[in-house]
Amino acid sequence: MGTLSKLFSNKTLRKKLLATLLLLALYRVLVFIPVPFADVDVLVNFTNLQNSSLSYFALLLWGTLDKFSLLAVGLAPFINASIIIQLLTGVVPALEELQEEWESGTKRIGQITRWLTFPLAFLQGIGVTYFVNYYLGGNAIELTTINIALVALVMAFGSMFLVWIGDLITEYGIGNGTSMIIFASIVSGITSSLYSSITAATNPFAVGLFILVFVAVLVLLSIFLIQTTKEIPVIYARQWKVEQTSILPFPLNPVGMVPIIFSIAFVSFPYLLTQLVSKFGGATEWIKNISSWIEANFNIYNQNPSWWTIIAYFVLVVFFTFFYALVQFNPEKIADNIQKRGGYIPSIRPGKETIAYISKVLGHLCFWGGIGLWVLASYSYLLNKIPLLQNLFQWFGTIPVVVTGSGIIIVVGVVKDIMNKMKSEQYMTELD
Question: How far, in Å, CA of 6 to CA of 91, rounded?
Answer without folding.
Answer: 48
